[in-house]
Prior knowledge:
- This protein is of the alpha+beta class.
- It has 5 domains: 6-87, GIY-YIG endonuclease, CATH 3.40.1440; 103-244, no CATH class; 256-363, Nucleotidyltransferase, domain 5 (2-Layer Sandwich); 387-528, 2-Layer Sandwich (Nucleotidyltransferase, domain 5); 542-596, Orthogonal Bundle (DNA polymerase, domain 1).
- The protein is 44% helix and 18% strand.
- The chain contains 20 helices and 19 strands.
- The chain has helices at residues 6-11, 38-47, 53-61, 73-87, 134-147, 159-163, 171-174, 188-202, 207-222, 226-240, 296-310, 338-365, 367-381, 434-451, 466-479, 513-541, 554-564, 567-572, 575-582, 584-595, and strands at residues 18-23, 29-35, 64-69, 103-106, 114-117, 126-128, 256-263, 267-276, 279-289, 317-319, 331-333, 390-399, 402-412, 415-416, 422-425, 459-463, 486-490, 497-499, 502-506.
- The strands form 4 sheets. Strands 12, 13, 14, 15, 16, 17, 18 and 19 form an 8-stranded mixed β-sheet that branches. A 5-stranded mixed β-sheet has the order 9-8-7-10-11. Strands 2-1-3 form a 3-stranded antiparallel β-sheet.
- A hairpin with a 6-residue loop joins strand 17 and strand 18.
- Helix 9 packs antiparallel against helix 10 (226-240) and helix 12 packs across helix 13.
Amino acid sequence: xxxxxxxxxxxxxxxxxxxxxxxxxxxxxxxxxxxxxxxxxxxxxxxxxxxxxxxxxxxxxxxxxxxxxxxxxxxxxxxxxxxxxxxxxxxxxxxxxxxxxxxxxxxxxxxxxxxxxxxxxxxxxxxxxxxxxxxxxxxxxxxxxxxxxxxxxxxxxxxxxxxxxxxxxxxxxxxxxxxxxxxxxxxxxxxxxxxxxxxxxxxxxxxxxxxxxxxxxxxxxxxxxxxxxxxxxxxxxxxxxxxxxxxxxxxxxxxxxxxxxxxxxxxxxxxxxxxxxxxxxxxxxxxxxxxxxxxxxxxxxxxxxxxxxxxxxxxxxxxxxxxxxxxxxxxxxxxxxxxxxxxxxxxxxxxxxxxxxxxxxxxxxxxxxxxxxxxxxxxxxxxxxxxxxxxxxxxxxxxxxxxxxxxxxxxxxxxxxxxxxxxxxxxxxxxxxxxxxxxxxxxxxxxxxxxxxxxxxxxxxxxxxxxxxxxxxxxxxxxxxxxxxxxxxxxxxxxxxxxxxxxxxxxxxxxxxxxxxxxxxxxxxxxxxxxxxxxxxxxxxxxxxxxxxxxxxxxxxxxxxxxxxxxxxxxxxxxxxxxxxxxxxxxxxxxxxxxxxx
Length: 598
């Protein structure tokens, strides 16, 4: 979002875990950090008074902020590590060395060894991790060694050498930690069965192992070996909180470009994740303005070419959400399951967040662009012939048939226009009849607009289903406006949208902006109508028993209720208390009325 002022970038950051990158005026990364909540963490740099001079200098140099949204804090920690090692930012002191997080390796060899390592090699071995906690690695290895006897020596256990008796069992064999494969005391098939079980544990499928540990802990407790039971309990807790794999760092996904797209009526947003040696090293989102009715496929093909040229990417494989045409030199993969699908979903998540932030920024910087986009989206979603720049929504309000009223709220360019709101007291309908009430208020509203030669809305929304919509249509027919103004009804239960003469309702995506605008209109009409209804009831309620007292008028009633807060307190008040509020004469009338001194 280069070019957007920092204060606006800060206002639109997401409340999600991720990694943030600070850039200076030349576009160089000067700091990388992780956050549980990106908005809170990044904003703290600009709101706090920093004690360290280095931090103050850093903040002064920040010209642009980029971020990558991830699923968990662990992913943020790993991604931060990758980016710091890749870019070596000036103000990052930690993580610049060549150390990395630990992995657990199952070596590719006869009688495979299982051990921890901080380096991943392309040697055919299986690597599980990375793990952000060394304690988790040690606990897993202890668990594995406790359950399955494995060799720890680095002998080359070829079949010929074992038969030749080149090796002798070591102390581990005599301690029961190894079954002596080096002397042929254990077959390769038996050993590999254990490796299969270990592989499942490292993938997170250790239900059987946990069950065994819990039984062991229970047995220790019954034998009064509480220290041993506590050690087992700690292992169980670590294992239950264990996460087997991370999307951020995955040795199975190496040197790949990942692209996803999110689009609306006017713009497309393409996110790019670059993976090198199993780690995410770059994220970038490109915004593309549509000129014609370009498809997502056309936009994505254009963006992939542009982004790969900009970042000099030579990856031979890309992951995308659907088929694209990029020539024969690039392998195109459309992930459906597993780690590849997870990384594609992460890219799409970042595209969505970028789009949301742009919307928020547009509201602040360019409200016209925001309104134009919303109107174009509503026109398409609701199948209208013109953009609904002026929308009116009607709602009836009555409680048990008393004081029936209606409300009309008005939105212009997607925003409330409160000076155009109108209340209606139902005049021609007796009792609680929502259909007749809707017919009356719609007729009164648009007859007046026509008589006064005022502009008519492009869209009318009726809060209710088919019945209320049909009643409103009767009034439009009388006024000759049917077909000249689009009208729809919204039912509360499932948010169905009903159109005239169409028995099948329209269902919009629950997250669509069009539905959100309609819901906002409906809720505002409901609030405005209820407010008027309450005011009307309150005025009616003022006609209390106080007003029936001879010689006491409405002004006196208001004064008494304002001071004593309720009619009951007025009735229980002493004479001198009443005199202090309304004077001697009126106080005596009220006091005598309630105390039987008529």
